[in-house]
Amino acid sequence: MTGQAEQNVVIVGGGFAGFQVAKLLSKKLDARRYNLILINSRSYAVALPASVRLVVDAESKLEETSFVKLDRIYANGNGETKVGVVTSIEAQPGVSGGAVVLATGERISYAALILATGSKWTGPSAIPENEDDVLPFVNAWRQKFAKANHVVIVGGGAVGIELAGEVKDLYPTKKVTIVHGGNQLINAAYGSSLRKGLEKRLHARGVQFMFNEYIDDIPEAGVVGVSTRSGKHISDADLVVSARGGRPNTDYVTSLGEDALNGHGFVKIKPTMQLLNHPSIFALGDIIDWAEQKQAAKLMWHVPVTVGNVVSFLNGATPTKTYTGATEMIVITNGKKGGMGYFGFFGGFTLGDWFAWLVKSRDFMVPHFRKDLGY
User: Fold this and answer.
1) 3-state secondary structure the chain
2) What's the total number of domains in the chain?
3) Are residue 308 and residue 341 in the same domain, yes or no?
4) Cross-strand bridge partners of residue 332
5) 13 within some domain
6) Residues 367 and 231 in one domain
7) Is there a domain that residue 116 lies in?
8) Are strands 349-351 and 226-227 parallel, antiparallel or unpaired?
9) How buried is residue 297: exposed, middle or buried, by Cβ count under 10 Å (0-12/13-18/19+)?
10) Range of 165's domain?
11) Quick check: 318 pLDDT over 90?
12) How far apart are CA 33 and CA 47, in angstroms?
């Protein structure tokens, strides 16, 4: 470690949650007391929402803008980014401090630990952790979409909807079908106005739907045709794409014992964002066991609670900031020029294409993402 202090504050994960926590902590921690270390599998953060356009549209050149180095986020240079993958945590219940162990075997001790490893994805959103594999992965998906005649998207959540819009933008005549387990797109957290509105917009572009259906196994490359769980066959499907929701990236947390995670792999936390039995370990973002939709927008509430409580803990005070939940909101794109937004205020309301274009569709907020990272 390059830091000169005796104790470390370690953040695991350099996505939206991790780098925002690092930015704030770098302003608040005394560098004479603590080394701030952000551990991430890559040297850069990924603007993950933009991945649906990145893997379809080569002309977007998003590979040049949506991967942003994690070297300008620290105030006064108070912090460092370490490329690595944490495989386990060494900690005793009720005892402060511990260490994280990397895949290389390196062990890094911590006075406070923040877990922000986000979700694991399948299909084209599963950007590889190894930097050398990223561009070949992106280019391979671009070629698959270009060659396909009938794209079948498995999952009608936000990722599946946005992917369908991107394919229709670049290939308006290409056949696209969304297979979704529910009876409407996305889920009931957002109300029927948004769900029906998005279906109508995609249908107008020629996207077809199979509701209340599941595809359990994604066919190997080159296989034409796929069957749903109920036995319905899509004979001409020559590209079947998984757009299922993410699952928490928390395998390494199992080292803390079976009571650290719930049955779905989410980290059990107190409203202070601390783990139940580990006062010096905090968690935020998609990985926490909290009854809410998993979205980057929640970080407006997660980050200040986490950072404030980490600082209190390190100063020997009892963390008092609490997270009580956040209003549901979402913007889902339909290509570069359309989409819809939902806001849970005042009983819930939606906004249409112009709003979606203004805040997300035109650039997936990549310029804002870059600015947030100092670029």
Assistant:
1) CCCCCCEEEEEECCCHHHHHHHHHHHHHCCCCCEEEEEEECCCEEECHHHHHHHCCCHHHCHHHCCEEECCCCCHHHCCEEEECCEEEEECCCCCCCEEEEECCCCEEEECEEEECCCEECCHHHCCCCCHHHHHHHHHHHHHHHHHCCEEEEECCCHHHHHHHHHHHHHCCCCEEEEEECCCCCCCHHHHHHHHHHHHHHHHHCCCEEEECCCCCCCCCCCCCCEECCCCCEECCCCEEEECCCCEECCHHHHHHCHHHECCCCCECECCCCEECCEEEEEECHHHECCCCCCCHHHHHHHHHHHHHHHHHHHCCCCCCCCCCCCCCEEEEECCCCCEEEEECHHHCEEECHHHHHHHHHCCCCHHHHHHHCCC
2) 2
3) no
4) 340
5) yes
6) yes
7) yes
8) unpaired
9) middle
10) 123-245+327-372
11) yes
12) 32
DSSP strand pairing (208-211 vs 175-180)? parallel
Cα 140 from Cα 339, distance rounded (Å): 27
75/151 Cα distance (integer angstroms): 46
CATH code at 219? Answer: 3.50.50.60
103 lies in the same domain as 138: no
> Is residue 3's pLDDT more than 70?
no
Predicted TM-score (pTM) of this structure: 0.96
List the beta bridge partners of residue 251.
none
In this predicted structure, the answer to whether residue 1 has a pLDDT above a threshold of 50 is no
Q: What is the largest CA-CA distance in the chain?
A: 65
pLDDT in tens, 121-164: 999 999 999 999 999 999 999 999 999 999 999 999 999 999 99
User: Are 271 and 237 found together in one domain?
Assistant: no
Cβ–Cβ < 8 Å for 131, 113: no
The residues, ordered by sequence, that sit 6+ positions from 283 with a Cβ below 8 Å of its Cβ are 114, 115, 116, 267, 269, 273, 275
Question: Which residues, in sequence order, are bridge partners of residue 12?
Answer: 39, 115
Alpha carbon distance, N-terminus to C-terminus of the chain? 25
Residue 221 has what pLDDT? 84
Residue 26 token pair: 């770098």
Q: Are residues 193 and 219 in the same domain?
A: yes
